[in-house]
Amino acid sequence: MKLRLLTIVVLLVVVTIRTEAQKAGLQRIDPPFWWTGMQNNTLQLMVYGENISATKPQIHYPGVLLKEVIAVESPNYLFLNLVIDNNAKAGSFDIGFYKKKRKVESYKFVLKTRDSNPDLHKGFDNSDVIYLLMPDRFANGDSTNDNMPGMIDTAKRSNPLGRHGGDIRGIANHLDYLNELGVTTIWTTPLLENNMPRQSYHGYAITDYYNIDPRFGTNEDYKKLVKEAHQKGLKIVMDMVANHCGTGYYWNDDLPSKDWYNQWPEFTRSNYRVAVQSDPNAPQADYDKMVKGWFDHTMADLNQHNKLLAEFLIQNTIWWIEYAGIDGIRQDTYPYSYKDFMAEWMQRILEEYPDFNVVGEVWLDYPPVTAYWMDNKTNADGYRSYLTNVFDFPLSTAIARAFNEKEGWSSGTMRLYELLSQDFLYSNPMNIVTFSTNHDADRFFSKMNEDYQKFKLGMIFLMTTRGIPQIYYGGEILMTGREHKGHGTIREDFPGGWPGDSENAFTSQGRTEEQEEAFNFMRRLLNWRKNNRAVQYGSLKQYLPEDGVYVYFRHFEGESVMVVLNNIAENKTIDLSRFEKDLAGFNKGRSVLTRQSFDSLDTLNVPAKSGLVIVLGE
Ligand code: CA
Predict the structure, then answer these.
(1) In CATH, what number does 2-113 get?
(2) Confidence of residue 567 (pLDDT cuts 50, 70, 90)
(3) Average pLDDT estimate for 453-472
(4) How far is the CA of 148 from the centre of ligand 1 (A)?
(5) I need a surface site. Which of 7, 286, 290, 360 has the fewest CB within 10 A?
(6) Which fold does the domain 535-616 belong to in CATH?
(7) DSSP 3-state percent helix, strand, coil across the chain (nearest 5)
């Protein structure tokens, strides 16, 4: 008995010593694994552990060469540059860390086989409608993960800026709802770990680029969500942040080198002036503040001109695309990073995944600035972004104003006309992601002053004009909220997403009459859009608005759609002879929303403050 006890004690001591040794030595390697057969055959491993730079790493595996070992200012990092031959086989190998001839640490590194499914990484396009949701606020599918060990910001649903408990399971539970609504693509705000003391729910202060926040689920859960979404015909867009990380990152107190962050003698905020990046007249000081200033005290500004960090961020993106099988990326605060870095990041993504899409957040109301960041745009300063898609912030502003104001020389629908008349600025205006609102602005129904007719006009326009439309969760059930009252008010919980919710807007029975009407309107519009190639891919022909009525057409390979928006409080009968070129070959049509048939196309009655979407020839 005594002997057994002694054995246990000895074993415990050995285990403790070993655990301590591992803790003191190697702590992590990023990326944790990789794949064979990538277009780019180099791989940078970031190794972290106490005094790891005092060791000499070795790798012995056919087809894998440890080409270079880089030490940095902190002794606790090593960067290993590997070359992985095309003939390297999937498998695992030991990365040994040696002191003299003694191996003091080792890491089993796995080279995986790539998923050969040809449908993966195909991106999103004009046939898609994107549904933006905030995972913490959409649905709580697993109450057991609301609080997790080690995560400092604990759940408190009564706090508008606290964590509410929504998660990946909650999203997965409602894929059928999203399919019924008729959206095709889900963009979630960031799901990566945000171990920050406050407001961690929003996800934009990432504290681990390789780990899903445990309060949302696991990396495996995310991968499974993508797979389940794909099985149901839905795509997933991942939100990424290259400009800054949360100050709760493990490296914050032990930077590989001081220049990992953009450093200032004292805290210096970005001036948030996006225009500076493309302004030919900008002084250096304004540029420095814009690009090197910190987004917030809690968000450290990353210096992507540090080559090791740049490679870390690029590989991290490729890792998530390959690992999770995502269909696209939304990149946060796009012009806040160095633009040469962002162009390199984009090129490296497209090198591996030529059909992939990234939509960049360039938050400014001027089309020339939006256009500056679009791929293939030849800018006067020689900058080419390679960015495949940009959000149409100017159009979002124009929509909010157009349906709220009186028609005039340059107001009302004329705003929409004039904005779209500037499409010559874009290399491809079809690739713009159009939206009514997002998680940083008033909810759309509030923008429309809770006027349902205006809401419908705005949605009809968004779903039928050029571009790839994006809507915001809860818009379909007329959720309201004003940004100036706090971010919590525009990011409220979706009713029915939490066990015990008194309302459940995910089901027809649970919706109020008003919610049900709005949901059915959106459902009809979106499900029609899903199957109509003219509204997806068709060329746009817009006529100058007249007497408050704005008419445009979408044409694609013999299919045509006519849209008529009456933006005044008066029923109108319009003479269609003005549009005879675009009506040529058609003598009838059918309204998508009312299913009414039109047997002649000479005149058209359009009720006050309403829109007609007519499929020609049906
Ligand atoms: Ca939860």
Answers:
(1) 2.60.40.10
(2) very high
(3) 98
(4) 10
(5) 7
(6) Immunoglobulin-like (2.60.40)
(7) 35, 25, 45
